[in-house]
């Protein structure tokens, strides 16, 4: 098991790396001075443009990116545990597709960021409720049936997104919709950060507190009940928290895939499958990962690359490695 200092220092290192790097580089000394000046009076020794770049552009984007990365990674680990499947992602129950539909619908009605946030959040959670009621029978919700219901709901909202894109103005609305659906933090600001930070942290905290129960739920339901766990209740607390996290993430950044699918596997390679250690590791790695990828997305080329493209490329590489590992009998570790 890796030292806990690694999981503390990694996000901090990526945090300062992301503030320094960009098409307009900022000296690390200036970064420290600008950050300290926000809480303690410091005589400016840096150009004013450096402060505007750090405080107005990079810092809110970085805070939202690290929050979303941590939330999606923890959500993926929790879902892979309760569904007993290493290929499950936080999007499996249709929440991302539902939130995507809500965001696109809001874009067609208005360009208000608040309306996009509200619609994405509402429709994301409605999608999960629809999957729940579709799968539930006789006060029981079998895991396999719930996953299949999620696939159905996801396919429905994906089709509805395509319908809305067909109705969008190809000159004024469609390019923005397509770019938003690919995922990006280009519109990040402190207002959006303020909207999501408290519910995000609450949900992540709940998943962290339930980490030992996720260990139990990753066994059979009979074993979990024998250990005194209320299986249905605990599963739905976890599903509710994950749904809120994903819906909030989509509402401010569009659909960013593969984070909740790939990062838990990387964390398992480092700390093992015990969720007591896996959940904190996912928080650290997820925050550092998405912040780093976003830095590459806004720095690599003159035009910003949508995050969903880069996270998909990295995810394919990771699962290609896992496929080869599986051929050698290593998948059982997951």
TrEMBL record:
This is Cobalamin import system permease protein BtuC. Belongs to the binding-protein-dependent transport system permease family. FecCD subfamily. The keyword Transmembrane helix applies. GO terms for molecular function: transmembrane transporter activity. The complex is composed of two ATP-binding proteins (BtuD), two transmembrane proteins (BtuC) and a solute-binding protein (BtuF). It holds the Pfam family FecCD. Keywords: Cell membrane, Membrane, Transmembrane, Transmembrane helix, Transport. It comes from the Archaea.
């Amino acid at each position: 098991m890796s030292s806990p200092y690694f999981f503390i220092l990694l996000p901090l290192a990526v945090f300062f790396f992301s503030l320094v790097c960009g098409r307009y580089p900022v000296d690390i000394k200036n970064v420290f001075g600008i950050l300290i000046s926000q809480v303690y009076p410091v005589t400016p020794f840096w150009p004013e443009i450096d402060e505007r770049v750090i405080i107005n552009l990079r810092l809110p984007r970085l805070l939202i990116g690290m929050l979303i990365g941590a939330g999606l990674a923890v959500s993926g680990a929790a879902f892979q545990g309760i569904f007993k499947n290493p290929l499950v992602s936080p999007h499996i129950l249709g929440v991302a597709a539902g939130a995507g539909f809500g965001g696109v619908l809001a874009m067609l009605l208005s360009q208000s960021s608040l309306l996009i946030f509200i619609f994405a959040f509402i429709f994301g959670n409605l999608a999960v409720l629809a999957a729940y009621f579709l799968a539930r029978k006789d006060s029981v919700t079998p895991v396999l049936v719930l996953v299949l219901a999620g696939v159905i709901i996801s396919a429905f909202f994906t089709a509805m997104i395509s319908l809305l894109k067909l109705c969008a103005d190809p000159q004024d609305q469609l390019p923005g919709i397509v770019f938003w659906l690919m995922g990006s933090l280009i519109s990040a600001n402190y207002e959006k950060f303020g909207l999501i930070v408290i519910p995000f942290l609450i949900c992540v905290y709940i998943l962290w507190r339930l980490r030992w129960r996720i260990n139990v739920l990753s066994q059979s339901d009979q074993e979990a009940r024998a250990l005194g766990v209320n299986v249905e209740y605990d599963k739905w607390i976890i599903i509710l928290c994950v749904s809120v996290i994903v819906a909030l993430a989509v509402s401010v950044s569009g659909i960013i895939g593969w984070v909740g699918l790939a990062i838990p596997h990387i964390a398992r390679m480092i700390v093992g499958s015990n969720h007591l250690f896996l959940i904190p590791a996912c928080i650290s790695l997820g925050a550092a990962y998405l912040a780093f990828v976003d830095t590459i997305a806004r720095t690599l080329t003159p035009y910003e690359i949508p995050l969903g493209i880069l996270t998909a490329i990295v995810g394919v590489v990771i699962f290609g490695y896992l496929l080869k590992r599986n051929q050698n009998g290593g998948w059982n570790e997951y």
